[in-house]
Design goal:
The complex is a heterodimer of chains A (341) and B (510). With 341 residues, chain A is mostly helical. Chain A has 13 helices and 4 strands. Chain A has a two-stranded antiparallel ribbon with strand order 1-4. The radius of gyration of chain A is 21 Å and the shape is globular. Chain B has 510 residues and is of the alpha/beta class. Chain B folds into 3 domains: 225 residues, P-loop containing nucleotide triphosphate hydrolases (Rossmann fold), CATH 3.40.50.300; 124 residues, Rossmann fold (3-Layer(aba) Sandwich), CATH 3.40.50; 83 residues, P-loop containing nucleotide triphosphate hydrolases (Rossmann fold, 3-Layer(aba) Sandwich), CATH 3.40.50.300. Helices cover 35% and strands 23% of the residues of chain B. In chain B, the strands form 4 sheets. Chain B has a 6-stranded mixed beta sheet with strand order 5-6-7-3-8-9, sandwiched between helices. The chains are: A mainly alpha (341), B alpha/beta (510). Chains A and B meet through helix 8 and helix 9 of A and helix 2 of B.
Chain lengths: 341, 510
């Protein structure tokens, strides 16, 4: 073999391969947008940062989906959980006169509770994750209506103060027509989301639990034979996803500042789509959190481009996303079939 | 206990409801040897392995591990691993999506934080010492099956294993890969690892093994040095026939001789399928009963499955009555008048939930087409006729077939095919697991059908049965046809010699 001489270049791992494609796709898409739609705002740095501002919650939710999908499962309840969190928090702040910190704890608590129940049912009672989280989704939606039926806007002073915090990016910005420099900014949610991306990246790459997730998703039976506690790993995957749904729900609330029964509908599907576009394999075992971040950004960019072109409504976003999803799913099935050879 | 013993098992007994799987079996593995564990189907090889690895609890007997005077009880595969007994299975139990290095270390490290650099360095060292051509960072799915198996072995070796069990490791490897694996096994031997090698490939046993333990019917036949045991004797020990006795049994009892001048009912040339069977030629004439023989896994069933189109045919030509035909799926075979009674009755034969009647008429119904169903009266008439003809013991035609005894189930499947009036019928192990009375009935029926002009291929693990029924036998070894015996040459001794291969001529009995 080539061991002693020049080593033949190894083919990239599935995870690295899909990640590369995702990042390249985002770059290409954004650069093309800057070139052709520069006058519609794409030349301004703030357009990019607005992507982050707009989608901080989705980033966190998609990260949660990636974790559970890497372990070979799925969680379709995160949209419902987000709605429940928004409604509970707004009622807590407005009607019960609660404080901001309390709202944060409530968010995390609700997410964690859903995660624990899902995890227990999936990992220890061995029920199909789709069914379990479908039930979770219906429960969350129902509970949202139970808390309150009307749309409520949060007016709590502490809350509004936090949600309006703008963190300026030094040295980055754009000039208005009058030549006034407007610095670019991000909201506080972006900091939280990026921090979570970094933490999850490190966890997935460098901890026993993170590698266990990949092993379980790759082949649960083998993972068991290799001495991994498969049930526990699955359980904590759902707990973590639940917790991230809590954080994501809180960020969503922070951004919208309101609660309503129909809120965040289909958000779980956006999260799943972003995760897949980011290179997570639906069958488990392959995925990367950085890819997920870019998956969300791709989704956001498509939406912004469609709006800038002036195409009406979210339909064109949907059609473009579906085309991209098809592309990635075909790519994934190629990878899966290659594995089976 | 001798110093170089890695592990020894004494007087191991294990029974399952109705079966004595192991009766008082001894087994000893020494440092630095490859010890082949041989036996036919049901000999108890896998039960012994499973007792050793803690999958089954033994009923009686002791297991001793090197460096321990006390007899041990091994409760789980995990515990066996901690004691230094590692198993590498035929199907690879690694994660294809992880890297080679991770597969070697995952689930073993106690640390919460993964140190990639240290892991890759360690993996590099191990792969280098064992001369395994893989890189630590490579994704396992990108490696060949042989390399994946070697990675599994490397993991076991690094876990300080003293005894390595290789359970049918070569079945999915090609010849080059097998050679690589054997190099690795010899290397491990020099490091003092004791290797238990379970396989059904005779050539491979003699290529790497130092010692052979033969089991038969759950009992220990004996432990032999490989160089002292000629192949033909190994085969006779596995089958339970002493060669001296064999000479006295005259072969060729088959009563029907095919007329030589006829065009064969079925001819196959260079036929091969995706099951791995090597291209083979085969012919059968009208009214002839012939058979495929060989050890378990030698390709007997694979041949007939290729003829019937049950596996994907990848090459060769088939003629029926002199005309080229294309049989690429069972339905095509049925339309050409070929019937096939499969080896695994429970899985491929009966449809457990359906009644005896439905099980009997289903093949004919399929040929007629599902949109032209038989009337209830017709179906009942067909079923009744064959239940009477074959004396199938069933409460009624509407009894679910699963509630019948094995022998009666088999007769019902036979009835299913007879009802289609096939020109050529393949019977793969029709008498396995059924009582002696029914066995004889089926044998008689086969001869009767042949005398009426049906061509039949009969496969059985019992050589006597084959000799009684067949007038010609195709002998297989390691997925290859190695000989054909008929007439005067058709004796047990000749069959065993052919199965054992050329080397037997150098043995004591040549």
């Amino acid at each position: 073999m080539s061991r002693n001489g020049l080593r033949k270049r190894e083919p990239p791992t599935d995870t690295a391969f899909l990640l590369t494609i995702t990042i390249c796709m985002f770059m290409a898409m954004y650069i093309l947008a800057v070139i052709f739609l520069g006058d519609k705002g794409f030349s301004k740095p703030q357009t990019f940062f607005n992507l982050l501002n707009e989608y901080a919650a989705l980033i966190v939710l998609s990260c949660g989906l990636s974790v559970v999908m890497i372990s070979g499962g799925i969680d379709i309840s995160v949209g419902g959980v987000t709605a429940l969190i928004c409604m509970t928090c707004v009622v807590y702040l407005e009607d019960a006169g609660g404080g901001f910190l309390g709202a944060v704890l409530i968010s995390l608590g609700i997410g964690l509770a859903f995660g624990v129940v899902h995890g227990f049912l999936v990992a220890y009672l061995k029920i199909q994750p789709f069914i379990v989280t479908l039930a979770g989704m219906f429960f969350a939606r129902g509970a949202t209506a139970l808390v309150n039926l009307d749309q409520v806007q949060a007016k709590n002073a502490a809350f509004t103060a936090v949600s309006r915090v703008r963190i300026l990016i030094p040295g980055v910005g754009s000039f208005t027509k009058r030549g006034v420099f407007v610095p670019a900014y991000i909201e506080i949610g972006v900091i939280v989301a990026l921090l979570i991306v970094i933490l999850l990246f490190l966890m997935l790459k460098y901890t026993k639990f993170g590698r266990g997730l990949y092993a379980v998703g790759g082949n649960a039976q083998s993972a068991l034979m290799l001495g991994i506690n498969v049930s526990r790993t699955k359980f904590f995957a759902y707990v973590l996803t639940g917790l991230l749904a809590g954080v994501g729900g809180m960020l969503y609330f922070l951004h919208t500042g309101s609660g309503s029964v129909v809120q965040a509908s289909g958000l779980e599907m956006d999260a799943i789509a972003s995760s897949i576009i980011g290179g997570t394999l639906l069958s488990g075992g392959v995925g990367n959190i950085i890819g997920t971040l870019f998956g969300v950004l791709i989704r956001g960019t498509i939406y912004t481009i469609v709006t800038a072109i002036g195409a009406q409504g979210p339909w064109w976003t949907g059609i473009t996303i579906s085309a991209l999803l098809c592309f990635f799913i075909v790519l994934q099935s190629v990878i899966t079939s290659r594995k089976k050879r | 206990m001798l110093d170089n013993t890695v592990l020894s098992m004494r007087g191991i007994c294990k029974s399952f409801p109705g079966v004595n799987a192991l009766k008082n079996v001894d087994f000893t593995l020494r440092c630095g040897e490859v010890h082949a564990l041989m036996g036919e189907n049901g000999a108890g090889k896998s039960t012994l392995i499973k007792v050793l690895t803690g999958v089954y609890a033994k009923d009686a007997g002791q297991v001793y591990i090197k460096g321990d005077e006390k007899a041990l009880t091994i409760k789980s595969p995990q515990e066996a691993q901690n004691l230094g007994i590692s198993t590498v299975y035929q199907e690879i139990t690694l994660c294809p999506n992880l890297s080679v290095a991770e597969n070697m270390f995952i689930g073993r490290d106690k640390d919460t934080i993964v140190n990639w650099r240290r892991m890759n360095t360690r993996a590099r060292e191990i792969l280098d010492t064992l001369d395994i051509p893989a890189t630590p960072a490579q994704q396992l799915a990108n490696c060949s099956i042989a390399i994946q198996q070697m990675v599994a072995i490397a993991r076991a070796v690094d876990m300080d294993c003293k005894a390595l069990i290789l359970d049918e490791p070569t079945s999915s490897l090609d010849e080059n890969e097998v050679a690589k694996l054997f190099t690795l096994m010899r290397d491990l031997k020099t490091r003092g690892v004791g290797i238990i090698f379970v396989t059904h490939f005779l050539d491979q046993v003699y290529e790497v093994s130092d010692r052979i333990t033969v089991l038969r019917g759950g009992e220990l036949v004996g432990e032999f040095l490989a160089r002292d045991l000629p192949r033909v004797e190994l085969v006779s020990k596995m089958m339970g026939k002493e060669l001296d006795d064999l000479e006295s049994i005259s072969g060729g009892k088959a009563s029907i001789d095919a007329k030589l001048d006829q065009i064969p009912v079925l001819e196959a040339y260079g036929l091969t399928s995706n099951s791995g069977v090597k291209p083979f030629d085969f012919t059968i004439k009208r009214g002839e009963v012939n058979g495929f023989t060989g050890l378990l896994g030698s390709g007997r069933s694979e041949c007939v499955r290729a003829i019937y189109g049950a596996d994907r045919v990848t090459g060769g030509q088939v003629k029926m009555n002199g005309r080229n035909v294309k049989i690429d799926e069972p339905f095509a075979a049925m339309k050409h008048g070929v019937g096939y009674l499969p080896e695994d009755r429970k899985r491929d034969g009966i449809i457990a939930e359906l009644s005896v009647r439905e099980n009997i008429i289903i093949a004919l119904q399929v040929m007629r087409g599902f949109f032209r169903p038989f009337t209830a009266a017709q179906a009942k008439a067909f079923a009744d006729e064959y239940i009477k003809l074959l004396a199938i013991k069933t409460a009624s035609v509407d009894t679910p077939i699963a509630s019948l005894s094995g022998g009666n189930q088999q007769k019902a499947i036979l009835a299913r095919w007879l009802l289609t009036h096939p020109e050529y019928l393949i019977l793969d192990e029709p008498t396995r697991g059924i009582d002696i009375g029914t066995k004889i009935e089926i044998q008689k029926l086969v001869l009767e059908l042949a005398s009426e002009g049906m061509s039949i291929t009969f496969i059985s693990s019992e050589i006597e049965e084959m000799l009684r029924v067949c007038s010609r036998l195709v002998v297989m070894r390691d997925l290859r046809v190695v000989g054909e015996l008929s007439g005067e040459d058709l004796t047990q001794t000749n069959i065993m010699r052919t199965i054992a291969g050329n080397e037997a001529r150098n043995g004591r009995y040549s």
